[in-house]
Amino acid sequence: MAPIRGEATGPPVDARVARTRQDILRATLDVLTSQGLDGLTHPHLAEVAGYSRATLYNHWPNRTALLRDAYTYAGAGKHSTPTGDLRSDLIAELTMFRTEMERHGLDRALAVLAAVTAFTPELAEVRDQLVTDGEQVMRGLLAPVLDGPELDAAVLMLTGAVLNSALLHGQLPSDSVIAAAVDLVLCTLGGPAS
Amino acid sequence: MAPIRGEATGPPVDARVARTRQDILRATLDVLTSQGLDGLTHPHLAEVAGYSRATLYNHWPNRTALLRDAYTYAGAGKHSTPTGDLRSDLIAELTMFRTEMERHGLDRALAVLAAVTAFTPELAEVRDQLVTDGEQVMRGLLAPVLDGPELDAAVLMLTGAVLNSALLHGQLPSDSVIAAAVDLVLCTLGGPAS
User: Fold this and answer.
1) Which superfamily does B15-74 belong to?
2) Which letter does DSSP use for residue A118 in this model?
3) Fewest 10 Å CB contacts: which of A154, B38, B59, B116?
4) Chain B residue with Cα closest to A174
5) Sign of the C-alpha dihedral computed for residues B8, B9, B10 and B11 taken in this order
6) For residue B36, is it left (φ>0), alpha (ψ between -120 and 50) or beta?
7) How many CA atoms lie within 13 A of B188 on its CB side?
């Protein structure tokens, strides 16, 4: 979850305020991926970020507002760059998804996001935007060769295999599981395409 | 998440105590699937279940202990009964998974479980048991026709497609997406097996 988008909402702000907001959003992401929801209180975040509680409440009156900006600031993580070899490109993109989980706590950030949005409909929009961005490369790779429910299923299955492994099996998928998942999906094209 | 296992831990208890524990675990699951982690405090649960806080603390000194017993009590939900037609059986099992999400809030329970176990290693064991039980029928259906990383990938992808849809796309997968997911996996067997 490397910052990729910067400030996404609100009016133009001067450099000092922008820096304050960035410091606090970074601290929010740190706490979110190291302690989860329990650490996400304004008093605790103020302490971690080194700002007053009043500053936090001033910018974000509640946790939902803070989470919305923190996830927008974080973005969906890095993507791979397609080379034109479909099988290698799918494997590279899933491997990048796994790397973002491993290095930047994307797995924990997504687990918290799922648990929060299930009960906070106001966050559905930021979740949907993150998921759209997160799936963009995968969907772009598969759209020329699959369509309709088959395309939707393939995207859900490939990213879902990595998610399922990380979120409910407590381990990231191995290289061989990622390759096997890609080959299962590519079978329908008459064998691995390259 | 219908209760399927009853009490799983602790010494034999008399009927009154067993009933108290059951009432409170049911209330815990209700709160967990309707309000999420924010509602999971001992005072709030005591109020909802109609018992004293002291009773709750007496049985479960902390939230982790309570969650462990609540998830064990809930179990992994109902399964379909295989008929021998692999394609229909896989579709039926994924459809049952979706139904358990729809009717009993299994999607929310799993979102909370993922978010909690990411930061509470003590709960990994109960999560692993639930996932093993939850995957059991699916794995049993696929084990005769796939093995190694291909079997692991297929199980992660099929259940992962439903999970991904529910937890990160905010909607349960349609019948046609479920059927397309099953057909993608069965392709490797030389077309839908029946």
Assistant:
1) Homeodomain-like (1.10.10.60)
2) T
3) B38
4) B149
5) positive
6) left
7) 20
Look up the pTM and report it.
Answer: 0.88
Inter-chain touch B180–A127, beta carbons under 8 Å: no
CA B185 to CA B108: how far, in whole Å? 27
The pLDDT value recorded for residue A194 is 40
Rounded to the nearest angstrom, the minimum Cα separation between B119 and chain A is 6
Q: Looking at this predicted complex, what is its ipTM?
A: 0.87
Position B10 confidence tier, pLDDT thresholds 50, 70, 90: low
The candidate with the shortest Cα–Cα distance to B182, out of B96, B92, B110, B102, is B92
Domain boundaries, chain B: 15-74, 86-189
**Radius of gyration for chain A, computed over Cα atoms and rounded to the nearest angstrom:** 19
Number of H helices, E strands in chain B: 9, 0
Give pLDDT tens digits for A124-174: 999 999 999 999 999 999 999 999 999 999 999 999 999 999 999 999 999
Are B181 and A156 in contact, with CB atoms under 8 Å apart? yes
The topology under which CATH files domain A86-189 is Tetracycline Repressor; domain 2 (1.10.357)
Length of chain A: 194
